[in-house]
DNA sequence: AGCTTTTTGGTACTTTAGTATGAGCGCCTT
DNA sequence: AAGGCGCTCATACTAAAGTACCAAAAAGCT
C-alpha cells in the first residue's frame, strides 16, 4: 500500500513537470508541442502496462492460493500434509516412506487419516478434494 | 492479426487528430495545452492497460492448453482419454465402469494401456505425467 | 511434571489396482 | 475378403492400497 501511494505521488509530480516543460518549450520555441505530447503518451502508455501487470499478477495469485488456515481447520497435521504433497506427485506408499525416512506402515496410517479428513475414499479423490479445498496447488 | 493492425491504425489516426486539435486549440486559444496533454495521457494510459490485458490473457491461455496432437502422438485413443479424465476426477475403476456403461475388466484394460502410454506405474503418477504433457488441465 | 497431540510402527485383514493372456466383435482400409 | 485397430470382456494372478485396532515414543502445552 505504501508503495502504491509512493508510485502515484511520483506520477503526479512527473505529470506536473511535463506540464511545465511543455509550457517552457512553447515559450522558448525550442521544443515542439508534438514532442511533448508524444512523451506524455509514451510515459502513460508504459504506466498503463505496468499498473495493469501488477493488478493482474495479484489477481492470479489470489485466484489460486493454498490456504494454511483451511489445512488447520481440517485437522491436517504437518506430517500428514507432507504425505499429501507426495501423493499428489504420484508417489506410492513405499516411495513416500523412503522419501520421508519412515516405514510404509506409518505412511499408511497417515494416508488413512488424510482420507477421513479430506472425506475421500481413494488417494486420487483426496487429491481432487484437496485442490477444491484450496489446500493443494491446482 | 487483422484486428491488431486495425487497432493500431486507429491509434495512429487518433494520435494525429490529437496533434491537430492541440495545434488548433493553441492558435484559437480556447483550449489549454494542459487539457490536450491530459487527454493524451488518459487515452494512452487506457490503451496501455488494454493491450497489456490482451497480451497477458493470451499468455495465460497458452500456458495451459490441452494439446490434442500430443494425445494422438502418444497413441491414446478416444475411449482411453475418457478413462483418463475419470481417473483425474478421482474415480475408482468400478465407478468409471458404471459411468461409461462397461465392465470393470474393460476399464482395467484401458487403465493398463494408459499407464504404458503415459509411462507411469500408478494412476496417480499417470495424472501427474498427463498434466506435464499438457493433455490434462492443470 | 502431567496431559494431549503427533508421529511412529506393527499385525491382520479386505479391497482396489494393475498385469498377463486370450478372445470375440465391429469398423475401416487396402 | 483379409488384416489392422479399437473396444469389449473374462480369468487368474500379483501388488498395492486401505481399514481396524493397538501401542509406544516424541513433541508441545500448561
Kindly describe this structure.
2 copies of one chain form a homodimer. Chain A has 7 helices and no strands. Chain A folds into 2 domains: 2-62; 68-132, Orthogonal Bundle (Arc Repressor Mutant, subunit A), CATH 1.10.10. The longest helix of chain A is centred in the middle third of the chain and has 31 residues, at 33-63. Chain A is mainly α. The structure holds a DNA duplex (30 and 30 nucleotides). Chains A, B: It comes from Flagellimonas algicola.
| Average pLDDT rating of chain A | 81
- Domain module count of chain A: 2
The fraction of residues assigned to DSSP E strands of chain A is: under 5%
Query: What structural category characterises the helix and strand content of chain A?
Result: mainly alpha
Q: State the order of secondary-structure elements of chain A, H for helix, E for strand.
A: HHHHHHH
Keywords (chains A, B): DNA-binding, Membrane, Transcription, Transcription regulation, Transmembrane, Transmembrane helix
Transmembrane segments (chains A, B): 33-51
Pfam families (chains A, B): GerE
Protein name (chains A, B): Response regulator transcription factor
Q: Which keywords apply here?
A:
mainly alpha; 7 helices; 138 residues; homodimer; DNA-binding; Tscrpt_reg_LuxR_C (chains A, B); 78% helix; 2 domains; transmembrane helix (chains A, B); 0% strand; Arc Repressor Mutant, subunit A
Quick summary:
By secondary structure, chain A is an all-alpha fold.
Topology:
2 copies of one chain form a homodimer.
Chain A: H1 2-28, H2 33-63, H3 68-73, H4 78-88, H5 93-100, H6 104-117, H7 123-132
The structure holds a DNA duplex (30 and 30 nucleotides).
